[in-house]
Design goal:
With about 500 residues, this protein is α+β, with helices and mostly antiparallel strands. It has 15 helices and 16 strands. The chain folds into 3 domains: about 290 residues, no CATH class; about 120 residues, no CATH class; about 55 residues, Arc Repressor Mutant, subunit A, CATH 1.10.10.410. The strands form 4 sheets. Strands 1, 2, 6, 7, 10, 11, 12, 13 and 14 form a 9-stranded mixed sheet that branches. Strands 5-4-15 form a 3-stranded antiparallel sheet, with no helix packed on it.
Amino acid sequence: MQDTSKSKPTNLIAGATGDWEVVIGMEVHAQVASASKLFSGASTEFGGEPNSYVSLVDAAMPGMLPVINEACIAQAIRTGLGLKAEVNLSSVFDRKNYFYPDLPQGYQISQYKQPVVGEGEIEIEVDGETKRVGIERLHLEQDAGKSIHDQSPDYTFVDLNRSGVALMEIVSKPDMRSAREAQAYVTKLRTILRYLGTCDGDMEKGNLRADVNVSVRKPGAPLGTRCEIKNVNSIRFIGQAIEVEARRQIDIIEDGGTIDQETRLFDSAKGETRSMRSKEEAHDYRYFPDPDLLPLELEQSYVDDLARDLPELPDAKRARFVADYGLSAYDAGVLVAERENADYFEAVAKGRDGKVAAEPRDGKLVANWVINELFGRLNKEAKDIEHSPVSAKQLGGLVDLIATGVISGKIAKDLFEILWTEGGDPAAIVEARGMKQVTDTGAIEKAVDDIIAANPDKVEQVKAKPTMLGWFVGQVMKGTGGKANPAAVNEILKKKLGI
């Protein structure tokens, strides 16, 4: 990897001999969203009985030839377009030779010098600072099977269900300089893949996992020797693994030692990385073009057709939410982090009949309710937006009642609780349960007069200290069951008390 970062060193790590800079590159393996495998028609379904989704090609039976799955090619190209990357109209599948029990062929069909997607970039944001991380390449390859070691002390079992599943290996340039930047990169990449529908990003199932390359150097010095931390399957662990590995390397160098280029594993329970094997170079794998597969030749018109069908991606959607709905960049970023969340917000915000052409609702008010009330409750109950008890139509109805002054913000929270636990139509619930806000100034004036008459000592105090007005507001709201219009209460109190 070449060092392409243009930024000045930041996020330095203090050592005994001065500051150190960590340099991070990443190889993310993303399982292609496809019903069948890269070179066979076997299912990619997760969780089947061991060896139940294995074709003769996947098991490397003699004479069985691979056939490229066009859907996987399309998904790789769509991903490349989403990463603002160059799509190569000519690419080659190679054999990457190594021997392992869960690799039946004794080689992996992958891509090396001529991948399907070339250089691109991802824009990340950390602490309000925007940074571009370069993409070196995206290539397709088949996954290996799985070795199972924990079912018997005497045997290792092999499950080939994953053998031949299509993976996109997305290789970054070594542009990241902190664990937080690396976490932001994987988070953003996962979001883009999910928007495109090219990978579900489920890290718990292993559908998205990262090999993290870490080295350290003095600021401005040449790149140091890197170690690869293999198969890290959570964003939290990626951050922990980088911090642990960077400190390990710094300690070794400062003690007079040298770093061995090797592959390591991260043990999250012990908070350490440990050596797995020496790091192979490309020549160790003896790459050569797979003789069973012709070069992949694409027409530009095919790529253009795929480009036209791409969905609106997170950065564009975020900019539009800021422009169209008047949201802050932060709120827009929260909403677009997951496509389903953004779709829910927009379904509420677009208008009372749910159509783009309709009068839109107050975007800031909608965002406040979606982010603070809805997301807060979903997180508390470990639900996702697809299983929200409150639909976009119901929340839109609630927002309309606030906007038209039928209910106050406090009543709205009570109404939200009813919608969450019981469901129903917001307007009908408010009508049936007498939850409408009191806007009759006569009724509010009577409540204010009663509170003033009952608290002459407080009246004298508030005249000397106007900040006590909040106490009177609270008493009036309490006396009206929280139904009085707060703005009207404030206005009438100020007039009556001469504030």
